[in-house]
Amino acid sequence: MSVKVNFYLKSSRVQNANGGFLVGDFNQWDVNKGIALHLNDDGSLSGTLNLSPGKKYEYRYLLSDGRWENDDNPKVLKNAYGQVVENCIIDTKQNLKKQSNSELKSGKTLGSKSEDLTKILGVTPKIQTLLKSESITSYVELGRCTIKKLLLILDIANNKKKINYYTTWAKQAKLAAAGKWEELTDLQKKIELDA
Question: Quick one: residue 98, left, alpha or beta (phi over 0 = left, psi -120 to 50 = alpha)?
């Protein structure tokens, strides 16, 4: 039995590339065995693979202009040839009985939901919109963000204001994701006192 998985890389990440390949655990990271992707009318890339259920797969997109890109799925840091790289993950261990195969899409984490990130001290509605544009829509996803990644997101948007507490966002988000609201309130009071 296999699970049909749709992969999708939005046009803002494809930029001027005119094609690309999907490379990952499913083809032993062999660029020569990369799965060719379809260039859509809107400039995005897409493709479909049949994967074994009950597994996690790491992957990336190799674009025709030589760039490696990631989609919006969760990421994991790996050491590759002495350099730290960020790989995407698709998890077919999720409860597939409740979801049709067409819902298992790259860029969407199964079971993820959009949450009010403004409950995190320092996340304004504008910053929440910015985070959501990068597919950070839940406390769990924000909790996984590194300071480096947050800085890149905020820097790209030229958002220099009201980011005093960004170094604490992941810690705050982990408490929110665990439903530890009292601890979160205590932490936020401490953060404000120390500021």
Answer: alpha
7 and 74 share one domain: yes
Amino acid at site 147: I
- List the domain range (segments joined by +) for residue 30: 3-103
Q: Exposed e or buried b for every residue in 88-112, given b needs 16+ CB within 10 A?
A: bbbebebebeeeeeeebbbbbbbee
| Global pTM value | 0.50
Structure tokens at 170: 């992941």
Q: How far apart are CA 160 and CA 162, in angstroms?
A: 7
Residue 52 CB-half CA count within 13 A: 7
The answer to whether residues 15 and 40 belong to one domain is yes
Is 98 found in the same domain as 7?
yes
Closest CA to 9 of 65, 104, 73: 73
Cβ neighbours of residue 138 closer than 8 Å, sequence gap 6 or more? 112, 113, 114, 115, 177
* Tokens (6 digits) for 109: 């984490």
What is the chain's pLDDT, residue by residue, as a tens digit (195 residues)? 678 888 999 989 999 899 999 999 999 999 898 999 999 888 899 988 888 888 889 999 999 999 999 998 888 887 777 778 889 988 886 534 434 444 444 444 333 456 888 889 888 888 888 887 777 888 888 888 888 888 777 765 555 544 667 889 989 988 888 888 889 899 988 888 886
